[in-house]
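Lecture notes, part 5. Sequence design as translation. It can be helpful to think of inverse folding as translation between two languages: the language of shapes and the language of residues. The source text, in structure tokens, appears below.
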């Protein structure tokens, strides 16, 4: 019998924890993602700063930290209640897959800057080698040491950075800073690839863990082909399945769990998640997959050819995900 584990924040210290809600598209560049990052700070909060890369400019919003405890409780309750193996569903995945730049862009373009809850969040694009660190120093963010190879990778891809620090107003208001999650909503630039930034984490010194809760309308590729997340060092802890009473391959009604046969007995575990889904994507249905990676070596991650891209469970093992094909947004890892 599975013994439910208590929630202790992230998997361990030195962890990254995120909730991802992904919507693929049948058109190139049409996919969208909500990436909710749990903010963790070591040391003094006035020394805290994060720089997070994104394929396109995100919209940033404050979210409730309770959702991480709730999604953990849901997964643990489902695992504890398993009396048989899930049925083997089959998912096909997706059926099919700005303004002009200035003549001489600034070395660092500030696309937006605002206070989001406890944080000062600036979204910028680096256009000139070495310019980002100068801007970070000037604006009171921590600079990125020995990072030019990683910054060059993102600069060539024309990615943007969300630069995050605790706001001055929050520091003056209270020593006990409310480190709530931040939600970043953005276009991935592709069709079927679920994005999570990893290469920037390769700049840190100690090994780290990653814990991802991914909501998507189908299952995700684990090891079905070389594009599965297990080949990137991740393993699955949990994923939803279909019972005999469920509509096959339809996902679960997380925005209305009391009307979902699979979820109704577990709805009390995740009221904040339900409110989030009602706010962002009412009526949409998802399967939740929880994947984790432990003791990742920063230097190894730094050498990755791209960030983490997770793909749908295409039942044809020879099928190449749209975003992994030559010239697509996630092609770099498999270019050879």
């Amino acid at each position: 019998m599975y013994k439910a584990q208590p929630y202790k924040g992230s998997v361990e210290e030195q962890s990254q924890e995120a909730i991802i809600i992904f919507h693929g598209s049948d058109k190139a560049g049409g996919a969208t993602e909500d990436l909710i990052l749990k903010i963790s700070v070591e040391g003094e909060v006035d020394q805290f700063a994060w720089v997070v890369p994104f394929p396109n400019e995100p919209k940033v919003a404050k979210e409730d930290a309770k959702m991480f405890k709730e999604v953990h409780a849901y997964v643990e309750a489902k695992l504890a209640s398993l009396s048989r193996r899930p049925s083997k569903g089959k998912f096909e995945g997706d059926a099919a897959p700005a303004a002009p730049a200035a003549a001489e862009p600034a070395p660092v373009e500030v696309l937006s800057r605002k206070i989001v809850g406890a944080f000062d969040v600036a979204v910028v694009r680096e256009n000139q080698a070495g310019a980002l660190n100068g801007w970070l120093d000037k604006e009171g963010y921590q600079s990125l040491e020995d990072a030019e190879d990683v910054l060059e990778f993102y600069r060539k891809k024309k990615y943007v950075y969300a630069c995050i620090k605790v706001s001055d107003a929050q520091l003056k208001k209270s020593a006990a800073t409310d480190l709530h999650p931040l939600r970043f909503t953005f276009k991935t630039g592709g069709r079927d690839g679920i994005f999570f930034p990893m290469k920037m984490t390769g700049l840190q010194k100690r090994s780290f863990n990653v814990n991802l809760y991914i909501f998507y309308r189908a299952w995700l590729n684990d090891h079905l082909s070389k594009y599965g997340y297990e080949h990137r060092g991740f393993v699955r802890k949990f994923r939803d399945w279909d019972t005999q009473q469920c509509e096959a391959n339809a996902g679960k009604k997380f925005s209305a769990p009391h009307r979902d046969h699979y979820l109704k007995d577990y709805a009390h575990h995740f009221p904040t998640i339900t409110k989030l889904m009602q706010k962002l994507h009412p009526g949409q249905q998802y399967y939740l997959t929880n994947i984790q990676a432990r003791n990742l070596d920063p230097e190894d991650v730094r050498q990755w050819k791209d960030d983490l891209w997770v793909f749908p469970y295409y039942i044809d093992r020879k099928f190449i995900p749209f975003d992994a094909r030559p010239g697509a947004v996630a092609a770099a890892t498999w270019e050879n």
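The translated text above is only one of many valid answers, since several sequences can fold into similar shapes. Helices lie at 66-81, 131-139, 148-156, 168-173, 271-280, 298-302.
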